[in-house]
Amino acid sequence: MTVTIKELTNHNYIDHELSATLDSTDAFEGPEKLLEIWFYPHKNAITTAKTLRDVAMDKWIEILKLVKCEVLSMKKTQELDAFLLSESSLFVFDHKLTLKTCGTTTTLFCLAKLFDTIEQELSWKFQTTPDGKYAPFKVFYSRRCFLFPCKQAAIHQNWADEVDYLNQFFDHGKSYSVGRNDKSNHWNLYVTETDPSMPQGREYTEDDDETFEVLMTELDPHCANMFVCGPDTSTPAPTEANEDKGHNLGYQMTKKTKLDDIYLNSSQDSDASFHHDAFAFTPCGYSSNMVLAEKYYYTLHVTPEKGWSYASFESNIPVFDISQGKQDNLNVLLHILSVFQPREFSMTFFTKNASSPSFQKILRINESLPEYTKLDKIVYDLDDYHLFYMKLQKKI
Ligand SMILES: C[S@+](CC[C@H](N)C(=O)[O-])C[C@H]1O[C@@H](n2cnc3c(N)ncnc32)[C@H](O)[C@@H]1O
């Protein structure tokens, strides 16, 4: 499955001025804050005429201003809107959204505005408890420990403050610190209890809901250099003739590193659609969103600077099922590791079905990574989800 040059001209939204004027900062916090809100368990459970995808672009821009990031471009598919941001990505489905932002963004500061907007624009009322808290179907917030916590805005400097802030909005939130609890090795998760009053039954359940995330640090310098543009690097500097340098270079980086070729071209129907949107930052850095079969995404973000190099991969593609067993997450992981060759990485895998072949295979994934030593390997039973976490380090 690879992308074609047509992907450079079929954006639903693109901010050429912003792409031309973005510039680099010094020490950059690659590790992202990841907020996923399921307002309803399924689009069939929405009780009003409008859905999240009816929220207009200018409303998303206002919400994202509070997070301190901007929209570079957006592509719409049949099932989702994939936004490429100045600091990572936003995926909007009819009934849920995933917001992933890096740097010194203030992700949680958008919550009040987000709930106000959907109440005004969609008549979605989730503020139902007497204490004014919100009760969407499910909320997840997670992040690995930061490389530069002191650079973050106040509440994001430490996990306990983030949890206190989330608890002002939601009831029944549970907080986890996963992995050995030292300065650079843990990963945090906040998750609310599933709202039992929402409709139940097969037509309201996403059976194939899986999320696979790989967070890599200390990238191999040659690999990291593939995401640097300008003199003496492996990617040529853009020419003046390019109308949108960031998107052009992003496309070139994707093709060169074969990041569009992670999933086999053998998904259930080989005509499955594939959409791509990538951006190369100046002088370095890369972000991309890929959408497969209209409803599955994977997203990659790279901070290549020596000293704080970092790359992340996140996917909701149930690879074993859609490839009919021809490909699994080990295969996906090996492809990603070959592109970045990190010294350390952590991975998380969420699934509803602990007896699925995908989950059973992932439990033994470290046995197929002879170059890496396992530091932590943990499974959580979170009632309606199972979480697998593993941290690995390259053998010397
Ligand atoms: C937004 S990208 C990808 C971030 C992502 N979370 C990651 O995995 O690293 C960050 C990279 O782009 C570079 N960059 C250059 N200009 C930037 C800008 N205006 N905003 C954000 N990043 C920028 C950063 O220095 C960094 O190397």
From TrEMBL:
<protein>
    <recommendedName>
        <fullName>S-adenosylmethionine decarboxylase proenzyme</fullName>
        <ecNumber>4.1.1.50</ecNumber>
    </recommendedName>
</protein>
<dbReference type="GO" id="GO:0005829">
    <property type="term" value="C:cytosol"/>
</dbReference>
<keyword id="KW-0949">S-adenosyl-L-methionine</keyword>
<comment type="pathway">
    <text>Amine and polyamine biosynthesis; S-adenosylmethioninamine biosynthesis; S-adenosylmethioninamine from S-adenosyl-L-methionine: step 1/1.</text>
</comment>
<dbReference type="InterPro" id="IPR048283">
    <property type="entry name" value="AdoMetDC-like"/>
</dbReference>
<feature type="active site" description="Proton acceptor; for processing activity">
    <location>
        <position position="287"/>
    </location>
</feature>
<feature type="modified residue" description="Pyruvic acid (Ser); by autocatalysis">
    <location>
        <position position="88"/>
    </location>
</feature>
<dbReference type="GO" id="GO:0006597">
    <property type="term" value="P:spermine biosynthetic process"/>
</dbReference>
<feature type="site" description="Cleavage (non-hydrolytic); by autolysis">
    <location>
        <begin position="87"/>
        <end position="88"/>
    </location>
</feature>
<keyword id="KW-0620">Polyamine biosynthesis</keyword>
<feature type="binding site">
    <location>
        <position position="281"/>
    </location>
    <ligand>
        <name>substrate</name>
    </ligand>
</feature>
<dbReference type="Pfam" id="PF01536">
    <property type="entry name" value="SAM_decarbox"/>
</dbReference>
<dbReference type="GO" id="GO:0008295">
    <property type="term" value="P:spermidine biosynthetic process"/>
</dbReference>
<keyword id="KW-0865">Zymogen</keyword>
<keyword id="KW-0745">Spermidine biosynthesis</keyword>
<keyword id="KW-0456">Lyase</keyword>
<keyword id="KW-0068">Autocatalytic cleavage</keyword>
<feature type="active site" description="Proton donor; for catalytic activity">
    <location>
        <position position="102"/>
    </location>
</feature>
<dbReference type="InterPro" id="IPR016067">
    <property type="entry name" value="S-AdoMet_deCO2ase_core"/>
</dbReference>
<feature type="binding site">
    <location>
        <position position="305"/>
    </location>
    <ligand>
        <name>substrate</name>
    </ligand>
</feature>
<feature type="active site" description="Proton acceptor; for processing activity">
    <location>
        <position position="301"/>
    </location>
</feature>
<comment type="similarity">
    <text>Belongs to the eukaryotic AdoMetDC family.</text>
</comment>
<dbReference type="InterPro" id="IPR018166">
    <property type="entry name" value="S-AdoMet_deCO2ase_CS"/>
</dbReference>
<dbReference type="GO" id="GO:0004014">
    <property type="term" value="F:adenosylmethionine decarboxylase activity"/>
</dbReference>
<keyword id="KW-0670">Pyruvate</keyword>
<keyword id="KW-0210">Decarboxylase</keyword>
<feature type="binding site">
    <location>
        <position position="28"/>
    </location>
    <ligand>
        <name>substrate</name>
    </ligand>
</feature>
<dbReference type="InterPro" id="IPR001985">
    <property type="entry name" value="S-AdoMet_decarboxylase_euk"/>
</dbReference>
<keyword id="KW-0704">Schiff base</keyword>
<feature type="binding site">
    <location>
        <position position="87"/>
    </location>
    <ligand>
        <name>substrate</name>
    </ligand>
</feature>
<feature type="active site" description="Schiff-base intermediate with substrate; via pyruvic acid">
    <location>
        <position position="88"/>
    </location>
</feature>
